[in-house]
Write a structure and sequence with these properties.
α1 links the parallel β1 and β2. About 30% of the residues lie in helices and about 35% in strands. By secondary structure, it is an alpha/beta fold. A 5-stranded parallel sheet has the order 2-1-3-4-5, with helices on both faces.
Length: about 250
């Protein structure tokens, strides 16, 4: 019986390592390399665009490490095979659900075994109940359409009839008004903090101040956001309702 050809994404910041791994995979008739990435942000974009069954992931990448990329992926049915020169990350690799952990330089025999394990996992997942679909925004990023899960969106900012969407250090645009965005059945808690911005409540690490003296929000990445006086009581109530009460008033 002919095996299904699996689409693969290679993620590595070293051109030589990407080239060597592609040569190994080319020798395997059942794998097709559909894209390559050299940094974390590009890896996320290409994974969402191509939806590969396999991702060969380096650990040390510009922008974020390979573990962060894996944890941010919205496709939980993709098989991750870490490729690295460092053996000490193996335990953590399996903790985030990797099917295998290959040390560089990757040879054909070890790669073939990893792909066999990936096929076994894909077969199990094919018979498992489908996960609940996550709500998402389809945004424009660098000329490409990318699906961004709403639980990953930190902040949206109105720019005329468009919204600038910030997620995981990335930014994209979606043709939608802030009013329509907030009125939609997102299933993810957002609150409007001023005339042109809305923040995801669970992205707020802390807040300080009051409606009278001025309320400020602090996101997990350290950014500070100003809340308008008009919105402050509503924002504070929303934060309490969402369980975001980790800061004291200044």
């Amino acid at each position: 019986m002919t095996m299904q050809t699996l689409d693969a994404l290679i993620v590595d910041d070293e051109p030589g390592a990407r080239r060597d791994l592609q040569q190994v995979l080319t020798a395997l008739d059942s794998v097709r390399v559909v894209a390559q990435a050299s940094d974390a942000a590009t890896a996320r974009q290409l994974a969402r665009r191509h939806r590969p069954q396999l991702i060969f992931m380096d650990i040390q990448l510009p922008g974020a490490d390979g573990f962060s990329v894996v944890q941010s992926l919205d496709d939980k049915r993709v098989c991750i095979i870490f490729t690295t020169a460092y053996a000490q990350y193996a335990v953590r690799a399996f903790e985030v659900g990797a099917v295998d952990y290959l040390l560089k330089p990757v040879n054909e025999q070890s790669c073939r075994r990893a792909i066999e394990r990936a096929r076994e996992q894909l077969a199990r997942l094919a018979h498992a109940p489908a996960p609940e679909p996550q709500p998402f925004l389809e945004v424009e990023e660098h000329g490409a359409r990318v699906r961004v899960p709403l639980p990953e969106v930190d902040l949206v900012t109105a720019e005329g009839n468009y919204l600038e969407v910030e997620h995981g250090g990335q930014r994209g645009l979606v043709r939608q008004t802030l009013e329509n965005f907030l009125a939609g059945p997102t299933g993810v808690p957002f609150t409007q903090i001023n005339r042109g911005q809305a923040a995801r409540l669970t992205a707020v690490r802390s807040y300080r101040g009051s409606a009278i003296g001025g309320l400020r929000l602090y996101l997990a990445d350290g950014r500070e956001l100003a809340v308008s006086r008009r919105r402050a009581p509503e924002v504070k109530a929303a934060l309490r309702a969402a369980g975001q009460e980790r800061a004291t008033e200044a």
